[in-house]
Amino acid sequence: MTITRRRTGASILGLFLVVPVFAADPVKLPLGIPEDIYQFVLPKDNPQTPEKIALGKKLFFDTRLSEDNTVSCSTCHGQDKAFVDRFPTSKGIRAQFGKRNAPTILNAMFQETFFLDGRAPTLEAQAVLPILNPVEMGMKDGAAVIGKVAAIPEYASEFQAVFHRAPTYDDLGRALASYERTLVSADSPFDRFMAGDDKALSASERRGWSLFNGKGRCMSCHGFSATQPFFSDNRFHNIGIAAHKADFVDLAIKARKMVETGNLKQIDELAIQTDLSELGRFLVTKNNADIGAFKTSALRNIALTAPYMHDGSLPTLWDVMDHYNDGGVQNPFLDGGMQRLGLTENEIDDLVAFLGSLTSSELKAESDAEMQRQKELARTNRPERDTDAAMGKKGDLGDVAPDPDLKDPALIGTTVFGK
């Protein structure tokens, strides 16, 4: 991987504009998000318009889309919480908890598939599925949703104004997705560093960036480049989280008999309501290689989206690093890239510091407070930590990568102009 860093003040692609972190105008983007990538992922059959975005935003925050008028999309994706809910797994109507952690929808528009198992092919499909899930928003079916929406005079007129027809379930998804596509977030210290500001990252963050690209092997799944600036490969991996509690073989046999390939509503309900949730991508593909595999999370604003993993089982970024450092929980379907890392405690601290540098500038205060909270928690509780496994004193988890050359650790994986 080669990353180009310019000292001229220009962006990686020469197209960045410095604007507020949440870009409500679909053509103005924060530092770190190339405009051509944004334009490329905009669907031709659902163009952005101010009126459609405004309608989608209103719907996103409206609890009337739920069966008992208590839950909205924002319940699990709170604007004041970097669009997550900070529960291990999310709470829906009648205080029911599902089986999955709510990922942030910041920058969701750039994903190739949606939900942690990729069961939704478009943002439009993702936006409406929770409305029908019995544990989440609990509406019976699309007709019931639209019957309720059409009975609200303001929506009846606004759908007519935006789509030139009465409300439909598909148009509901189009409006919600249009709003979600405005939730574009970047302009982090890392983005400023890559744009040429050598002082944007601390010494610890620079060492963490070196480890990220080297000994920590984070770039294997969370690689960064000019065309993939979100730190995710958009693929699915079994990293040994579900293996804490799942008998994969028995679950897979059960799922093969139950899952109807292509039945999105059924897969959604199995993922949120049953122990089959731990099968991950397998529910969608019924491919043995996908057993226990979940989508690689993007890392922007990761400091603000605790707890981590598909089941919210890791409370802090230190726990996440401990899990990877040990090589994950062994199981027959573990991704081949999962091996012990041999990271020292200081190296883990540097990697966590680097992850904190991926927070958007407008969220700095919240990020600083959250990083301090996690640090204090990690000082007293590190259940994933297994130093002997990480350092190769027990088990057989492969060789660790060499220690990096620390002459200028921030330059590993980069090509720097002007040097």
Structural notes for this entry:
The chain is mostly helical and 419 residues long. It has three domains: 50-180, Cytochrome Bc1 Complex, Chain D, domain 2, CATH 1.10.760.10; 189-240 and 295-416, Cytochrome Bc1 Complex, Chain D, domain 2 (Orthogonal Bundle); 247-291, no CATH class. The protein has 17 helices and four strands. The chain has a two-stranded parallel ribbon. It has a two-stranded antiparallel ribbon with strand order 2-3. Helix 14 (317-326) crosses helix 15. The radius of gyration is 22 Å and the shape is globular. The two termini are 19 Å apart.
Topology of this protein?
Elements lengths: L2 E3 L29 H7 L8 H11 L12 H4 L46 H10 L9 H9 L2 H11 L5 H12 L8 H6 L8 H11 L5 H4 L13 E2 L10 H11 L5 H10 L8 H4 L8 E2 L21 H10 L18 H12 L7 H17 L6 H4 L23 E3 L3
Parallel strand pairs: 1-4
Antiparallel strand pairs: 2-3
Offer a concise description of the structure.
By secondary structure, the protein is mainly alpha-helical. It has three domains: 50-180, Cytochrome Bc1 Complex, Chain D, domain 2; 189-240 and 295-416, Cytochrome Bc1 Complex, Chain D, domain 2 (Orthogonal Bundle); 247-291, no CATH class.
